[in-house]
Every structure is written in structure tokens, then in C-alpha cells.
Model the fold of this input.
Amino acid sequence: MHDVEQAFERWNKLYPGKVVMIHGGMKPNDKTNAIERAKKGFDECKVIITSSVIEIGLTMPYLRTLLVIGAEKYGAGTLHQFRGRLARKGGHGTFIMMSSKNINETNEDTVHRLNILKNNTRGSTIAEEDMIQRGFGSQNNKSTAQSGNLDGVFRGVKVLPSDITELLNTTTGSQLLKPRRDAKQ
Done:
């Protein structure tokens, strides 16, 4: 929130009265007013400074450029949601992911995640690539882990979507459900 407010002050010096700030810590009425100003487009608002609250589906119909500062802090799905805010009324939008670190100082997994977004636009492809990188999350309702790299059902084995597809292509459904004879009851 502090970074958003500082950025707002800096940009407001460049475009006095034409900068809108939106973040989750705002009073509901102030946030609603800011969103309405932003939706009116370029005559009312030239720059929107926002926290990740923009991910939740705010429609800014005239938003044409989105710069995410500290993109390495976000998951592939969140970055895809940010990008989805662009050009909602049609036309072209520019999505820029800026890392807080020099790319040479960023770990390989993070660079890979950012490249998933650079190279793909379909949400299903992004989700699959992200899952391949991070692994499955927990399906156990008692677990607090929501992201990948868990052992889950296949302890110690990394299972990829292609493994499941291969299993389904080589095994009929009835074989998958048939109990083993040597299984203890």
C-alpha cells in the first residue's frame, strides 16, 4: 500500500488530477469513486496506480498499457489475470512485466514462469505449464498448501499431465477401477 501511495504521488506530479490510485486498504467509497474515474478513460484518467486488487476482475475498458513492477513476486495465473484487464473494449494492449532484480540475478524458475506468460496467451496452456513447473497442489481438504511440489498420492514421484494422458490412452477406464487381486482387503 505504501509503494502504491508513493507511486501515485510521483505520477500525480507529471499528470496533476489525471492519476487514479486503487488499493485494498482504501475506504469502500473512495475505491468505488477511483474505479469509476478510471473506467471513464483517457480524458478523466491517464494513469492508474494500483495494487494487485486489479486482478479480481475490474473492467477498465480503455486500459491499453499495464506495467507490473515486481512481476517475479506473482504467480503465472495472477499475471495472466492482470494481462486480461487490457483492451477490454477491443484493440491492442501492451503488457509489461518488470522484475525488481536484474534478470541475471533472478532464479531460473522465476525466469521460466515469466517466460510462460511471454510465450502463451491461453489460460489453460499457462495453467498447465505452471503446473508442470511447480507440480500439483494438495487435494487434501486438511492441507494448507495451495501450490505445487507436494508428494500427494504419488509420494516421491513427479507426475506430469503427459503421464496421466499416456495412462488414460493405454488403459481402459474399467482397468483403472478394477481392484488388484493381491491387494489386502
